[in-house]
Amino acid sequence: MRWSRYFLYTLRDNPSDAEVVSHQLLARAGMIDKVAAGIYTYLPLGWRSIDKLSRIIREEMNAAGSVEVVMPCIQPAELWQESGRFQKYGRELLRIKDRHDRDFCFGPTHEEVITDFVRRRVTSYRQLPANLYQIQTKFRDEIRPRFGLMRGREFLMKDAYSFHSSAGSLDEAYRAMENAYRRVFDRCELSYTAVEADTGNIGGSESHEFMVLADTGEDAVAACECGYGANVEKATAGAIAPPPPWPGKVPAKPEAVHTPGASSVPDVAAFLKLDPAHFIKTMIVETDREFAIALVRGDDEINEVKLKNVLDATHIQLAAESKVEQVTGGAMGFSGPVGLKGIRIVADPEVMRMTVAAAGANRADYHLVGVVPGREFAPDLVADVRKARAGDPCPRCGAPLVLKRGIEVGHIFKLGTKYSEPMACNFLDEKGETHPMMMGCYGLGVGRTVAAAVEQNHDAAGIIWPRPLAPFEVELIALNPDVPAVRDAAEKLYGDLQGAGCEVFYDDRDERPGVKFNDADLVGFPVRVVVGKKGVEQGQAELSLRRDKVKVPTALPDAVAKTRELLSGV
Ligand code: ATP
Ligand code: MG
Question: CA torsion, points 500, 503, 508, 514, in degrees to nearest 10?
Fold first, then answer.
């Protein structure tokens, strides 16, 4: 491809809303163009990367036994009403009406559509398992679209769904998908890790996320050298160290202490000369079902995802101040578990391991000192609701956990009968009995994966494409193309490289060398071949890798072979 005939316009400046490197570089390298918040055009160069990744995904999905389909973007509300998600999904679901005033939505995911057409065709265990995938456009009205392709509103996803007559068969497909994902990310040369993930409201038995490790990742991962890894939303830990010894005498029974103005744990701890770990932190939450109280140790944080699951809730939020006062009879910021009635209390096991503690007194500016968990209050539920912290003992081996940032590029899930049951997607077994099918679903963010590759492969000058995702493999630069000898040598090389099967992008523009070099660094194709006046006089081209920029002068007749050799090494 000749630049002069292509559609590539690089930008000198970062878009003002581009906070992360991948967004900045994909925009500046002329790969994407913003149309509206979270909505992008994939420009020709960007589409080539997306297309390359899509091919890799297709090959691996096909090899894992999944069959390609394409489902529509626009989906009828009836199907979502059947699964119960039309109401539940929240505002990420873009609901629309047609000219007849009928309800539709723009699909954020396709469980409903696929379950509907499978149930109308598959009736017997003999037709199972079935496994289908698509690469298709989703729309989610994300509250905070940002980071370019990383969190768009309209974005490309590969989503696969499998249907089974037994848990064993689902497990087999799940493992095959897990391996296929590993192969996809390996082939993209990404550094990633597969971690245990929250199954949330879906309540499935197993779920893994594939995380590309990067400082800009929106997710936090707790990991251990032993191989344990989990999204922090889900991560557990072994028992943590107990609080330091109680300073001074332990009160025989709780004493109310005046703590004027001090409501945060660090403030009260400083005021009472206690350690934050001596406190019980109390949080009053409102779910779609009830008000509830969660307790963690004062130096811990509450994990809202865990709490939401423990409370079997769909939504969870902090209770409003007026509700806190109503529930506890005291002021916000001074809540504690002692004396509360008519509300469920969930206590983290670490709270129950405390021998004595301080807590809010449910009275403005007062705390209770000398509270003994189990004596002064009895939780309705003891469950892990704390956030795992760096240094916590690994739940498997006890070594200290490390926290890392990650970009979630894929998510695989055992759904069980969550959709097949309400939607009556049933099969007849050998005995002629009816059962709902077991399902799995498997998502992979196509644009997000390309963005993640840029996060992991760049320098100050631009992108350094891993070869499998590079829009082109070779950039051929003619310096001073107005010089006939240079133009002739470059044109010949262009033809020869193409003839040898190289994907070559030929910068034949009438631009200064500096501009061409800067652009070549920015778009970041793996191998660069430069033909200039001096070189041509000596019968040479100059080859280099984008990754290390080490110049390799090469005789013109050897340039094609050398280019191929360099390419095979990247
Ligand atoms: P997140 O927690 O990042 O919002 P999710 O749990 O909603 O992701 P899934 O519903 O599991 O994501 O979707 C499957 C995959 O689709 C994700 O692993 C991710 O790679 C991609 N994806 C999800 N939301 C977006 C988005 N807004 N923009 C780009 N890719 C996305
Ligand atoms: Mg999401």
Answer: -120
